[in-house]
Amino acid sequence: MTEKHLALAAVCGTVPRRAQGRNTGFGHSPVGGKEMSDWWQGAVIYQIYPRSFLDTDGDGIGDLNGIRRKLDYVASLGVDAIWLSPIYPSPNDDFGYDVANYVDVDAAMGGVEAFDALLAEAHERGLKVILDQVLSHTSDQHAWFQESHLSKDNAKSDWYVWADAREDGTPPNNWLAAFGGPSWSWHPVRMQYYFHQFLRTQPKLNFHNPDVVDAVLDVLKFWLDKDVDGFRLDVANSYVHDASLADNAPVPPADRDFLTWAHPPRHQQHDRDWNQPENVEVMQRIRSLVDSYEDRLVFGEFAGDDKILGQYAGGNDRLHTAYTFTLLEAASLERSVFETYYEKIAGPVDDLFPCVTFSNHDVPRPVTRWARGVHGGRDATRVAKLGLGLLMCLRGTALMYQGEELGLDDIDTAREQVRDPFGLIYYPYFKGRDGCRSPMPWTAEAHNAGFTTGTPWLPLGPSHPGLSVATQEAGSESVLAFAREAIAARKSHIALRTGSLDLEDSDEAVLAFTRKADGAVVRCAFNFSDTAIETPFPSGGTDVLRLGQVTRSGETAQMEPLSFVAVQV
């Protein structure tokens, strides 16, 4: 979750595997006399938004049994792991990102029994399972908050961030919530304000309290002991706040864009309510716990200042890897976006194996960003394939979002269809994140495309039955077929999976780079423009992956619009 979504929208139970040693060098850890594998480096992780994947009980909401039914499909993509968005009990004010119990599974999802079966069956297919962890805040229905709000002297009174009102009754400082309004809500029982960075029903945990840190580590240990393979940490740079409650500094007027004026939190630098030095210490403790188990992964989402990435991820005592919103919020396919990411964000962090992603449950899908709106008229199928090819050729652990392999675009929601709290607040200026959360189309049938026999919690896009899995399985030129080809290319070429990345000189509309690992070299060039281009490219070699007409002659390549080539040289 990030307040930058407005800017983007304007454009468009088993024995645990325990490690016996700690990391002693970047990328490897001795385990029982052997080295811990770094399976995640260059892996492809497939994000599943359970509510929208497959409904098996007719209530219109996807569930864990639906994911179980489609594990063979997921495995057929060639991905290494699945990442499940929150599956815990929740009042669903923010659809699972308001957790009411960290160590249970929502009955609507199928409960613990369904999760245990899913975990076992995924492992049988060689798929690792990553759980989303929302540790910064809880639901106000969580037992911890239900106790904390009762008095100022109970056992959990300071497990959340409470503060007295100013003399005039106003909140203690100027902090603003991402979903609008002050970050403070008054509680009449305690007669104090409590802090929330998002909805008022998502109170912020107090990570200055060591008991809170221990409690969230116990949550992670609970799931690690059940043999899950790792975690994705939601808004991982927001755990710790400035205990002095000093005001956030304003963004200088010269640095404000149009949408700053549409979304008040963008007026602030968030230098006090996010990104505190103590946050790094929490990440270090989480990494230490995860590394005490064999072959586990913890990666994080970081919103705001991209330059903080190296503080939280990489090396042996920070998160294994992490992603920012730089690529997720790229409104256009431009060479400069990727140069910035690799030269100024990920590149300067020497011990970081990066994480790359174009799509998730928080942002408009790549096809929507790159083939709709100001880019209308582009071939959506071509753009979808170009994005998938690029994702599999770039350096980093690749995160794919369900439906990306089908080339889905966002749905358009009428006011009465909006479910996302962001959209409920800002509609029609920003319709929220429902567009990218529409149900998966499994068949071409007009009635819900095989997602549910009931009424889906969100509508499907009118074009989505025609993009269904069943439809695309029958076509050798489909986006789905290309997705499998691109993933297979990454898995079969070490240079694409784990190699270095060196940017090359090229036409300004072309992103060209070289991947190298263990003597293997793959040269890639992507034409992001709508015109044919001639660009420098070495002769010789064997195609690894290609889209469109690319004619190589001597030391140049003629590339048709929206084309690419990856060649092993």
Automatic annotation (TrEMBL):
It holds the Pfam family Alpha-amylase. Belongs to the glycosyl hydrolase 13 family. GO terms for biological process: oligosaccharide catabolic process. InterPro entries: GH (IPR017853), GH13_cat_dom (IPR006047), Glyco_hydro_b (IPR013780), O16G_dom_2 (IPR045857). Keywords: Glycosidase, Hydrolase. It comes from Pyruvatibacter mobilis. This is DUF3459 domain-containing protein. One of its GO terms (molecular function) is alpha-amylase activity. CDD domains: AmyAc_OligoGlu (cd11330). Residues 47-437 form the Glycosyl hydrolase family 13 catalytic domain. Transmembrane segments: none annotated.
